[in-house]
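User: Aldo/keto reductase. Structure?
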Amino acid sequence: MEYKELYNGVQMPMLGYGVFQIDNAQTERCVKDAIDTGYRLIDTAQAYHNEEGVGAALAKAGVPRDQLFVTSKVWVTNYGEGDTMRSIDESLKRLGTDYLDLMLLHQAYGDYYGAYRDLEKAYDQGKVRAIGVSNFDTNRILDISTFARIKPMVNQVETHVYWQQRQNHQVMDQLGIAHEAWGPFAEGANGFFSDPMLSAIGLMHGKGVGQVALRYLMDLGVIVIPKSTHKERMAQNIDVFDFKLSKEDRSLIASMDANKSIIFDHRDPKVVAGFMKWFENVPKQA
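Assistant: Predicted structure:
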């Protein structure tokens, strides 16, 4: 495994397992399979409604807690001083752990400043080893980094070969914030798994499309959290430490960047307006 050292010295695995859109009933089995396969970073969120499944898997994994890196995210309806801390405590209970290795704010909406102050308090109290944000664009990450007491350590954003987040990545590098990718397989969009360029590069290295894409992002210093519910695919996704992409490979993949979202564009007013309407119908402790 390769690691990214966060600016506070915490070592974070460069490759982990994400559980987005896995129902709670399946999550225990999937996370247990992932840990058995060698994953040590597990990424969940309050809004995924599967923290209990993750916790059950952690309890049965047979791996010491200090060898696992567990991430969760505070949902927007739990933002606000006091509310966010209560939601962190609830996440800890659902996950069956005394601390989280990383807690993120899931979106840059609502009272994210009040929520972030609670993250800082949780960090001070040892409830979390690192804090950060998710889906913060360049302006928002500059904003929170400038005015928060403790600068975010991680920003998790949509990142894949079709949207490589170069500007945001550059800003994060300048701020010392680790760049983490959600959707590293672009959720299969644009015919990702049969992409001819990635397939050709993979053929030269005896690897698949997904492995090439993960290796490319990791070479850029981006932490990745691919998801699969199949153990054999989990094994393929983590099998990326025995090959290197050439300069020519990297140049070709860099040319695939369309510099725009293809999954969920947080900058699109229509998308954001729909998101806001949905927030109104979601209760606290989502």
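The chain has eleven helices and ten strands. The mean pLDDT is 95.
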